Amino acid sequence: MNYGICSNGSRDKGYKTAIKIAEILCGLGATPVFEPEMEEECPELKNVQGVLFEEFAKIDIKTVITIGGDGTFLSKVAKHRDLDTEFIGVNMGSIGFLNEIVPEQLEEDLATLVSGEYDIIDRTQLKCDVFNKDGVLKGSCVCLNDLVIVRGAKPHITTLFLSIDNQLIEKFRGDGLVVATATGSSAYSLSAGGPILMPHMKDIIVTPICSNTLNGYTYVTSEDSVIKISLDQVETVPLICPDGRDFIELESYDSVVIKKYDKVLKTVCLRKDSFFSNVRKKIVQRGYFYENG
């Protein structure tokens, strides 16, 4: 079995964890695969017998293993989501909601991964299309966590028209809106006051950010709903960010159409812990993390 390994060098200092994972996988009879640029970035990997350097799209990859935080996981999903593969992360960040493997249990967790004795979570993804005032498509993207439309460079209130399934729901005023999957429900949407959904759920959440009204409601829609967010004429153009990435520039009278993407993202689940227990644990850890500097 081939396992693609993607490491964030700013988190994985000297790529020590990447090297260790490669050694463990080789010892388990699996083949660790790194993208070609890693051959120069980490020459020590060439000393591990059995390592391959190849583009993931050119060979059969069983699982993509990311090393870093949630941001690393999301960026590698964005790069490799079209592969017919599974994803799992090694948590080298502060919290790691999306990362299943902890460095302290590396050998045990990798052995479980190679054995195939784990569950798969099919996670809903979102497709976003942006149209100009004439209905011409400006750009498209896919995201796993959320699509955020938030006020721009100046601290002006953003006015957005929210429609769900061709029905105008409200004229929103505030800092912006978060449209999230169940996966993204524990990220920005949660911080903005949205609900937490279990990761296998297919519902879509629309959560206001700092609503400048007395009714800043969160909406939970079905998986088949089509969400449309339209701009009026604006002085300061809001930003649009899929999974925290840069996207196209919005303009007055643009409209953003969001719906379920036609493919799920498969992630590996090694543990039988209660989802809500795990979320609570990680949120508590976040508090300790900041208190301890």
Description:
The chain has 293 residues and is of the alpha/beta class. The protein is 20% helix and 33% strand. The chain has 6 helices and 18 strands. The protein has helices at residues 16-27, 38-41, 70-80, 106-115, 188-191, 275-291; strands at 2-7, 31-34, 52-53, 63-68, 86-91, 119-123, 126-131, 137-143, 146-150, 158-164, 167-174, 176-180, 204-209, 219-221, 227-231, 239-242, 255-260, 265-269. The strands form 3 sheets. Strands 3-2-1-4-5-18-6 form a 7-stranded mixed sheet, with helices on both faces. Strand 4, helix 3 and strand 5 (86-91) form a beta-alpha-beta unit. The longest helix has 17 residues, at 275-291. The model is unreliable at 289-293 (pLDDT under 50).
Give the count of helical stretches: 6
Estimated share of beta-strand residues: 25-35%
Question: Helical residue percent?
Answer: 10-25%
As a whole number of angstroms, the C-alpha radius of gyration is 20 Å
- Say how many strands there are: 18
Structural class: alpha/beta
Averaged pLDDT: 92
Morphology call: elongated
Specify the biggest β-sheet: 7 strands, mixed
Numbering strands along the chain, what is their spatial order in the largest sheet? 3-2-1-4-5-18-6
Low-confidence stretches: 289-293
Order of helices and strands: EHEHEEHEHEEEEEEEHEEEEEEH
Distance between the termini: 41 Å
